Amino acid sequence: MRIRLSFLLLSIFCVHTSANADEWKLVWQDEFDGKSLNYQQWETEVNAFGGGNQELQIFTDRPKNVRVQDGNLVLEAHQDNAGIAGTVREYSSGRVRSKHRGDWKYGRFEIRAKLPAGQGMWPAIWMLPTDEKYGTWASSGEIDIMEFKGQEPKTVLGTLHYGGQWPQNAYSGDQFELKQGSFTEEFHTFAIEWQEGEIRWYVDGELYQTQSKWHSAAAEYPAPFDQRFHLVMNLSVGGQFVGNPNDSTQFPAQFLVDYVRVYQKR
User: Fold this and answer.
1) Residue 193, by phi and psi: left (phi above 0), alpha (psi -120 to 50) or beta?
2) Dihedral over Cα of 53, 148, 127, 112: its sign
C-alpha cells in the first residue's frame, strides 16, 4: 500500500478551501490500493452503444481496458478492433459506475485523476440519476463533474443537463483553465459540492462556478437535482463532442484515477 499522507493533506486542504471541514463527513471512498476493482463499489459497463454521442469505442470488462494497478484505477483506450456479441469497434476502452453500490442525494464528491492527451480522447467524471423519477434523459438530470477534450490539455468543463426529455433538454455550465501546466502532465483534484438548490465546482480546491438555476419539465424546482445520483467514470474515444482521433493520437491512452471520496453534511 502506498503512503498517502500527501494525498490526504491535499484532500483536507481542498475541503478547507471550499467549505468548513467540520461540516463534512467521509461516507464512501475508494483509494484503489488493492489488486482488482472492488465490485461491491463499482460495476464495469459493457456496451457498444456510442453513448448517444456517436462515440467510436466499445466498453469492455477486460483488464486491458479496466483494471486497478499501482494504486490507480486505470481506464485504458486501445485501437484494437475489439468485439462483443458480433459488434466490432475500432477502439476499446473502459467505463465504471457505482449504481446501486453508491447512490447519494447531496454531498461533496472529490476525485483525483490524471487525464490522457490526444485528439479524440474524452475522459469524464459524472453523475446520473439512479431512479430516473422524472423520465429519461435529460429530464431526470445529469451532473458532469469533469469533462475533458484531449486536444485541449489546459481546460476542463463542468456542466448540468436538465429540462425535458431529449430533444427538449437544456444545459448550462462553465470551464476551468490551468494557468500553468496541463491536466495530462500530473494529477489534479476535481470536486463538486451539491446541496439543495445549489451545485459548486472546484479544481484543486479552487471554486470556479456555482449553479443555482435550472428547471424540470416534470416537477418543481429544485427538480431534477433533488433525487439520488450515482457516479460514472469513463474514457470515451471520438464522437461529436471531441471529434475523432487523428494520426497524432497515440494509443494506448490512460485515464488514471487515484481516489474517489464522497462526503456528506454532518
Assistant:
1) beta
2) positive
Residue 122 and residue 237 in contact, taking contact as beta carbons nearer than 8 Å:
yes
CB 11, CB 189: distance < 8 Å? yes
Q: Active-site residues: which are they?
A: 142, 147
- Distance from C-alpha of 69 to C-alpha of 136, rounded to nearest angstrom: 35
Render pLDDT for 201-252 as a digit per residue (tens, 0 to 9).
Answer: 999 999 999 999 999 999 999 999 999 999 999 999 999 999 999 999 999 9
pLDDT score of 261 more than 70? yes
Residue 15 is predicted with a pLDDT of 44
Q: Is 29 exposed, middle or buried (0-12, 13-18, 19+ CB in 10 A)?
A: middle
pTM of the model: 0.92
Tell me how far apart the alpha carbons of residues 14 and 21 are, in angstroms, rounded to a whole number: 9
HSE-CB for 52 with a 13 A CA cutoff:
5
